[in-house]
Amino acid sequence: MRTTVGIIGAGPAGLFLSHLLHQRGIESVVLERRDRDYCERRQRAGVVEHGVAEALRESGLGERMDREGFRHDGIELRFEGRGHRIDFPGLTGRHVMIWAQTEIVKDLIARRLSDGGRILFEAEATAIEGIDGEHPRVRFASAEGAEETLECDYVVACDGFHGIGRSSLPEEVVRTYDKVYPFAWLGILADVPPSCDELIYARHDRGFALHSMRSESVSRLYLQVPADTDTADWSDDRIWSELATRFELADSAWKLDTGPITDKSITPMRSFVTEPMRHGNLFLAGDSAHIVPPTGAKGLNLAMRDVMLLAEGLDAWYARGEASGLDSYSEQALRRVWRAEHFSYWMTSLMHTDPAATEFEHRLQQSHLEHIAACEPAAAALAENYTGLPHV
Ligand code: FAD
Ligand code: DHB
After folding, report:
1. CATH number at residue 262
2. Residue 37 falls inside a structural domain
3. Tens digits of per-residue pLDDT, 144-173?
4. Dihedral Cα 296, 199, 286, 229, nearest 10 deg
């Protein structure tokens, strides 16, 4: 099988890249080891940055997001039993969209298929070869179990943290950086209308909690839990009671509504960066190259930004023979990646209870939160990063 750009992974990065390339007249094939249903159901991100939402609209994928998603103009930081609103448009002129990754993936798959795109589900890439030459290829096992080869000009690994893309870069050119946090998130989906109009990020001595949403009738909530937590130890009652405690307000009748929990999962917390994001004719994009802890809501957005940049580079190359966009891809993408890494680490440290923190560090954290609540430039720095920096 032959194509121009061979893409591994049908997550948001691989699918959006394939869509953007199609709109620029560049052919691609997407290899995905899971089936379509699995890709469309995997519960993950919910916040889309202003600029990424714009890019979805410009590429013809904004219609359902604007009809069924929510535009959010702020978030609430809740600590010491009090809430403090961060006003995004007032501080930055931008907002975010609450629009689930599952819905972005559904729309992208439907659109690629109706545009005649090729997504091979249940096709697992097993090796990437020839990236230093002119004819790179991806070996894969097809849904029927046959060994096949995809030949292309370029391979883009959008195969997530556990894919084969990153480990296909030669060891001597790669450097990785990482940090593992001593806690995880227990995430739930529940059939209950959200108890708030905007997301609540709560810091409590018992740990962090986040109230997000998926629709008028479905809430998405997260609890900080120890890293080795098993969901079996968390009954629905225990989850609701812990959430209610962490969201409690000192002087308000606000209360958390509860309902049937339909999904429970644990997300480990990690920061991770691979440098460079290109070697020869192999490019990395999205979680295959970098991971952020989810507190800043940056993972999906970074993945989308990587492929927006790469699509421009490939377009300049095929339309005008200009290689500069491809040559600067890694450096440019990494500038944004490191900014998001810092912001995500910062938000995580600000909001979570580190079991190893000293009383001194705890007081620093409290002072930092109070500063953000009281000082507009400090709140603006948070809002700038959260809604997405246009210039990085
Ligand atoms: P993935 O979505 O991981 O897709 C990779 C694909 O490659 C998968 O479909 C996989 O099956 C496939 N694959 C892997 N190996 C192979 C192979 N060998 N052959 C073929 N296919 C292969 N981000 C945000 O921006 N905002 C948020 O609010 C947010 N919240 C999150 C909450 C949770 C609970 C979690 C877990 C993540 C969250 N994220 C958030 C992060 C976000 O979901 C990820 O960063 C995003 O999925 C990255 O997209 P991707 O396309 O790079 O990788
Ligand atoms: C969601 C996830 C996040 O990591 C976050 O910071 C905000 C919202 C969500 O899944 O809705």
Report:
1. 3.30.9.10
2. yes
3. 999 999 999 999 999 999 999 999 999 999
4. 80
ipTM for the assembly:
0.95
Six token digits for residue 19: 């869509």
Number of domains in the chain: 2
Q: Ligand 1 mean position to 307 CA, how many Å?
A: 14
28 in helix, strand or coil? strand
pTM of the predicted protein model: 0.96
Q: In terms of domains, do 144 and 105 share one?
A: yes
Structural domain that includes position 365: 180-268+355-387
338 and 249 inside one domain = no
Pure H helices in the chain: 12-23, 36-41, 50-58, 63-68, 88-92, 101-114, 236-247, 299-320, 324-327, 329-351, 359-374, 376-387
Q: Which residues line ligand 2 (CB under 6 A)?
A: 45-47, 199, 210, 212, 220, 294-295, 297
Same domain, 22 and 119: yes
DSSP summary character for residue 198: S
Residue 296 CA: which ligand 2 atom is closest? Answer: 6
CA pair distance 46, 220, nearest whole angstrom:
9
**360 and 237 in a common domain:** yes
Does any ligand 1 atom lie closer than 6 A to the CB of residue 128? no
Which has the closest alpha carbon to 112: 1, 14, 2?
A: 14
**Do residues 257 and 280 share a domain?**
no
Q: Annotated catalytic sites, by residue?
A: 72, 201, 294, 298, 386
Question: What's the rounded Cα separation, in Å, for the pair 125 and 241?
Answer: 44
Q: How far is CA 249 from CA 20, 83, 245, in A?
A: 46, 8, 9
Are residues 375 and 329 located together in one domain of the fold?
no
